[in-house]
Write a structure and sequence with these properties.
alpha/beta, 23% strand, binds 5-O-phosphono-beta-D-ribofuranosylamine, 2 domains, eight-stranded mixed β-sheet, Rossmann fold, 8 helices, single chain, 228 residues, two-stranded antiparallel sheet
Length: 228
């Protein structure tokens, strides 16, 4: 049984998708805690799904390191094997990222290394980018910079605005993050502090459900080093 901690700060739609995936696909996995750094809709959704929750707010601590340490301790107490960031809107310090190296995963709404940080959809439009998308990656001490696990891309349409683009990218995210989770549980991808190894990437997609295949089949960008 693989145990996941999920860190959120907002609506929690990716967290819900991960929870749904575990139950629908009957994965040998469980979300052992959802932690937020503020009261938010996602925490209520997690509680409604009977997932243990914790709100750990930064203003109760002297500094970021102390806040990070409290989050780390809650994750360790919950016994998590992996930590999934799903819209966690705070930067985690090097002590935290080092502690969970190879087990700390994020989803970011851009084709990294493009558009690190915030407002990715508007920035992609402002840059006249032809393609945009989402990236699942290992988290390191440098913001939005760790080894890429998997990306999904779409073509920006002439009449796209930041809102339409955000909605279309979110649809990709909602397939991409569960697909990575399933691949991880199935042993089709191995994560470690030194990086990401996909064993049989195309076989992983082939064994995915119809909706995942429909949304992701033409969208995935496999990391180049792992396509053996
Ligand atoms: C997503 O776009 C995710 O990529 C980014 O924050 C957003 C979170 O959305 N890191 P939600 O809270 O999962 O709905």
């Amino acid at each position: 049984m693989v145990k996941l901690a999920i860190l959120i700060s907002g609506r929690g739609s990716n967290m819900i998708r991960l929870a749904e995936t575990i139950s629908k696909a009957k994965l040998d996995a469980r979300i052992c805690i959802v932690i937020s750094n503020k009261p938010c809709d996602g925490i209520s959704h997690a509680a409604a799904l009977d997932i243990p929750t914790k709100i750990i707010e930064k203003h109760n601590f002297d500094n970021r390191d102390a806040h990070d340490a409290a989050i780390r301790d809650a994750i360790l107490t919950a016994g998590a094997d992996y930590v999934f960031l799903a819209g966690y809107m705070a930067i985690l310090g090097a002590e935290f990222t080092t502690h969970f190296a190879g087990k700390l995963i994020n989803i970011h709404p851009s084709l990294l290394p493009l558009f690190k940080g915030l407002d990715t959809h508007q920035r992609a439009l402002d840059a006249n980018a032809a393609q945009h998308g989402a990236t699942v990656h290992l988290v390191t001490a440098t913001l939005d910079d760790g080894p890429i696990i998997l990306q999904a891309q779409l073509t920006i349409l002439p009449d796209d605005n930041a809102d339409s683009l955000a909605a279309r990218v979110l649809r990709l995210e909602h397939q991409l993050y569960p697909f990575v989770l399933k691949s991880l549980i199935a042993g089709q991808v191995t994560l470690s502090p030194s990086g990401v190894i996909w064993h049989q990437p195309r076989a992983a997609l082939h064994s995915a459900d119809a909706e995942t295949q429909e949304v992701l089949s033409s969208a995935l960008c496999w990391p180049t080093a792992s396509n053996a």
